[in-house]
């Protein structure tokens, strides 16, 4: 057997850039420019969901609550508490034949304000925070932070805040000890160098002029908040306020082939899934996307994948599609469905090569990643796709020209992680993890390849449509 013939039989992941023609490369850059603008402007679950609905409605999608009957070609969406949503295009096949579903999440690691956050210390006004999701706490100090979120007042009115993103906005930051005095800190492990209770945000320093006031700087901030937003200290108790990196998503590298930004995990999958369903008009199977909340903290809560939101919406579809509703029909729709769990994987990092399995790692620029399983140690805390479903998906991708690569998350016993795949698989669906590789995942500034972003879109689009 010749060496050339042996090479034909061997598997080797392709580099997506070398597979492109010039006009496709231009399309990749244009697609990523729009993606970068979208995630730069929508850094919270509420902002992402709201912007997604604007795009859906502009494309003819209707709120499911306003629909009385469903037929092939209809486009609907459902919003859950402003932080999670489902969108669907009804297919040609009978609904009971199952859905083609792409499920992702729109929450990212961040710092949440505590219910009673405001205090004064060291001639500064400060906010107390509680970190959300898996972060390296030392990465969040001495960087510009923006404040995003909503405050619900006791009369039910809503105040929206988005401060720190514009060039003329003030930013916020968390201090760190100078190296001249950091001897004891630097003796600690990296996980202990900055504690959760030290993630306190500097928000002001100018006191009120009233000599009778004890906490002059705190009072000055309260007066500012009352003047600018008509809120009081008690209003923080019914608020969802997040501190996120104030950076914009930007091109990275001389060749501009990478994107650096906050929240690629997992908004890169959510955005590409959204664009994929927006480009579908008449699918064979009913096409569905799920943009869920709270994945970074276990998918628990009424906006997470472990809630009944998805199941309730499938029941809603069945009720509007068939003349006679039955619970058995709901179960048939669920068990006949096929799912891509759209979440990111860890990109191989040569500076930390010891934790990656070289031949089973994801690489930037080699297309969308398919992961048969996630989990940790002995594959715990995850589902696993069947060989049949793996074969079906790779065949679909190959025929459509989607560049893809297989990978798992690091070496065995080096760590691990999970996605919403396990919760979808509990409905007896076929589920496969599928998303782009991310460098420096869960950091305030993550990196993805523009080629991988685009091929994620292609993968989701062909899966939903075909």
Automatic annotation (TrEMBL):
CC terms in the record's Gene Ontology section: cytoplasm
Sequence similarity: Belongs to the peptidase M18 family.
Molecular functions (GO terms): aminopeptidase activity; metallopeptidase activity; zinc ion binding
Entry EC number(s): 3.4.11.-
Cofactor needs: Zn(2+)
Gene Ontology biological-process annotations: proteolysis
Pfam families linked to this entry: Peptidase_M18
Name this protein carries in UniProt: M18 family aminopeptidase
Assigned keywords, A-Z: Aminopeptidase, Hydrolase, Metal-binding, Metalloprotease, Protease, Zinc
NCBIfam families, alphabetized: PRK02256.1 (NF002600)
Enzyme class: hydrolase
InterPro entries cross-referenced by the UniProt entry: Peptidase_M18, Peptidase_M18_dom2
Organism: Halanaerobium salsuginis
């Amino acid at each position: 057997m010749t060496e050339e013939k042996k090479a034909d039989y061997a598997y080797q992941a392709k580099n997506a850039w070398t597979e492109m023609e010039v006009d496709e490369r231009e399309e990749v850059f244009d697609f990523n420019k729009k993606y970068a603008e979208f995630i730069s402007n929508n850094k919270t679950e509420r902002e992402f969901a709201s912007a997604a609905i604007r795009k859906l409605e502009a494309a003819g999608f209707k709120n499911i609550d306003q629909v009385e009957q469903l037929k092939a070609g209809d486009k609907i969406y459902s919003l859950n508490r402003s932080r999670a949503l489902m969108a669907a295009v009804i297919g040609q096949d009978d609904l009971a034949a199952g859905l083609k579903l792409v499920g992702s999440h729109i929450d990212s690691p961040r710092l949440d304000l505590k219910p009673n956050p405001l205090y004064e210390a060291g001639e500064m006004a400060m906010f107390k925070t509680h970190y959300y999701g898996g972060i390296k706490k030392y990465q969040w100090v001495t960087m510009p932070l923006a404040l995003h979120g909503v405050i619900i007042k006791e009369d039910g009115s809503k105040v929206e805040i988005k401060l720190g993103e514009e060039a003329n906005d003030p930013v916020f930051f968390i201090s760190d000890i100078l190296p001249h005095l950091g001897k004891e800190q630097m003796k600690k492990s990296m996980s202990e160098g900055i504690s959760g209770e030290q993630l306190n945000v500097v928000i002001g320093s100018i006191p009120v002029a009233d000599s009778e006031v004890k906490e002059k700087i705190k009072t000055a901030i309260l007066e500012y908040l009352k003047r600018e937003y008509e809120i009081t200290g008690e209003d923080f108790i019914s608020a969802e306020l997040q501190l996120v990196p104030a950076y914009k998503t930007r091109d990275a590298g001389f060749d501009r082939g990478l994107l650096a930004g906050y929240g690629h995990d997992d908004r890169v999958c959510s955005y590409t899934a959204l664009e994929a369903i927006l480009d579908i008009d008449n699918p064979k199977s009913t096409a569905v996307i799920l943009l869920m909340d709270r994945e970074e903290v276990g998918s628990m809560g009424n906006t997470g994948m472990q809630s009944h939101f998805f199941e309730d919406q499938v029941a809603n579809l069945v009720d509007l599609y068939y003349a006679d509703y039955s619970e058995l029909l709901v179960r048939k729709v669920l068990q006949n469905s096929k799912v891509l769990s759209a979440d990111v994987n860890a990109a191989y990092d040569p500076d930390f090569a010891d934790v990656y399995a070289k031949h089973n790692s994801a690489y930037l620029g080699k297309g969308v990643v398919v992961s048969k399983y996630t989990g940790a140690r002995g594959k715990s805390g995850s589902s696993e796709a069947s060989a049949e479903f793996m074969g079906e998906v790779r065949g679909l991708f190959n025929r459509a020209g989607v560049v893809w690569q297989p990978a798992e998350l690091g070496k065995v016993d080096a760590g691990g992680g999970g996605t919403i795949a396990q919760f979808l698989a509990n409905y007896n669906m076929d589920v496969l993890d599928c998303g782009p590789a991310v460098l420096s995942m869960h950091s305030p500034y993550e990196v993805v390849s523009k080629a991988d972003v685009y091929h994620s879109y292609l993968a989701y689009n062909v899966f939903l449509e075909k």
